[in-house]
Amino acid sequence: MDKPTVSPLRFVEILNERLTKHPLYREGMHVYAIPAHSDHPHSLVCVGPRGTECVCATIENIVRGECDVFPDIARELQRRPAPPTREHRVRTREHRVR
């Protein structure tokens, strides 16, 4: 049986729907394509707390097994760097003062 083909936008929607149902899902986890709102995004970005990229990669592999994406998006997920914690900002400021 042939797999259905979905657009990149629909693929990202499916990933985010599935992500919220995963047992390791935590508040703030989501995936988006870059460039945003493009018909031909070239990459996926996974956002969330530490460990998010593993959950996103698992969901991506499952969904890719169920449908094809056209035009395709690269398989490597990128992780957006988390903003520095308050503790890190304080330590950085103290280091600059010295």
Question: Would you summarize the structure shown here?
Answer:
With 98 residues, this protein is of the alpha/beta class.
In the sheet with the most strands, the strands line up as 2-3-5
Major β-sheet profile: 3 strands, mixed
**Chain-averaged pLDDT:** 83
Apparent shape: globular
Please tell me the total number of domains.
1
Count of DSSP-assigned helices: 3
Q: What's the β-strand tally? A: 5
Low-confidence stretches at least 5 residues in length (pLDDT < 50)? none
Ends distance? 67 Å
Helix content: 40-55%
In angstroms, what is the radius of gyration? 17 Å
Secondary-structure element order, as H and E? EHEEHEEH
Strand content: 15-25%
Structural class category? alpha/beta
Molecular structure report:
- The structure is a single chain.
- By secondary structure, the chain is α/β, with parallel strands linked by helices.
- The protein has one domain.
- Helices cover 42% and strands 17% of the residues.
- The protein is built from three helices and five strands, in the order E-H-E-E-H-E-E-H.
- A three-stranded mixed sheet has the order 2-3-5. The chain has a two-stranded parallel sheet with strand order 1-4.
- Helix 1 crosses helix 2.
- The longest helix is centred in the middle third of the chain and has 15 residues.
